[in-house]
Amino acid sequence: METNLTSGNGNSSSNGTFETWFGGPPADVSAQAGIQLRAFFLNLAVSLSLFAFAILAFFLLKSAAIGRRIYQPKTYLVQERLRVDAVPADPIRWIRRIFSIRDDELKRKCGLDGYFFIRFLRAILLIFVPLMVVVVTVLLPINYNKGKGNNFHNTTDGSRSQWNVA
Questions:
Q1: Which residues on neighbouring strands pair with residue 17, listed in sequence order?
Q2: What is the spatial distance between Cα 82 and Cα 147, in angstroms, rounded to a whole number?
Q3: Bridge partners of 163?
Q4: Which of 4, 6, 110, 147 is deepest in the core (most CB within 10 A)?
Q5: DSSP E strands: which ranges in 84-136?
Q6: Which secondary structure element, helix H or strand E, spans residue 164, and what is its range?
Q7: How far apart are CA 126 and CA 138, in angstroms?
Q8: Are residues 164 and 152 in contact, defined by beta-carbon separation less than 8 angstroms?
Q9: CA-CA distance, 119 to 123, in Å (whole number)?
Q10: Dmax (CA) of the chain
Q11: CA–CA separation, 153 and 161 (whole Å)
Q12: Within 13 A of 75's CA, how many CA atoms are on the CB side?
């Protein structure tokens, strides 16, 4: 089958063209560059509502009887010497407990696997949360301005090639 894709002017044969395959002529993507503020807030609202639903479901399941068996089995299913304190029900105290637990207690109660896993998670948080703050503060203004000023010009100066943003 012959594929005859046009460059946007719509002058092509009807056998195997872009219009036949995709239901219309190719769009001018340069007119759609950037992100619209309305679309951004719509996506933000959907994401926040899904996040709120997942957090609410987690907290409801965690406080239920079956949730205790899933999320806190070492509070009552193990020998007395290996038991850990139950995680507080309040989310703020719960997060504070994660970061305030001592390393020797963690090694004793959870073993080396649990200790190194939590240590790894703490290190990942210390690396990526500040990085996320920097990246988001740079990318949001660029998206808000729809990427204006992104025309690239290639200049060759003797033996080297250089790209400049205009």
A1: 4
A2: 56
A3: 154
A4: 110
A5: none
A6: strand 160-165
A7: 19
A8: yes
A9: 6
A10: 80
A11: 11
A12: 11
Distances from the Cα of 88 to the Cα of 64, 106, 128, 139, 151, angstroms? 14, 17, 27, 37, 54
For residues 17 and 24, give the distance between their C-alpha atoms in angstroms, rounded to a whole number: 10
pTM across the whole model: 0.47
Q: Is 33 helix (H, G, I), strand (E, B) or coil?
A: coil
User: With contact defined as beta carbons under 8 Å apart, do 119 and 133 qualify?
Assistant: no
Residues in the chain: 166
Q: Which two tokens stand for residue 114?
A: 């649990």
CA distance 117 to 105: 14
Give me the residue label for tokens 């679309």. Answer: 39
Identify which of 55, 40, 65 has the alpha carbon closest to the alpha carbon of residue 144.
Answer: 40
Rounded-to-integer distance, Cα 34 and Cα 22, Å: 23
The DSSP letter of residue 159 is: T
Locate 110 and state its tokens.
């959870």
Which pair of tokens denotes residue 59?
A: 């907290």
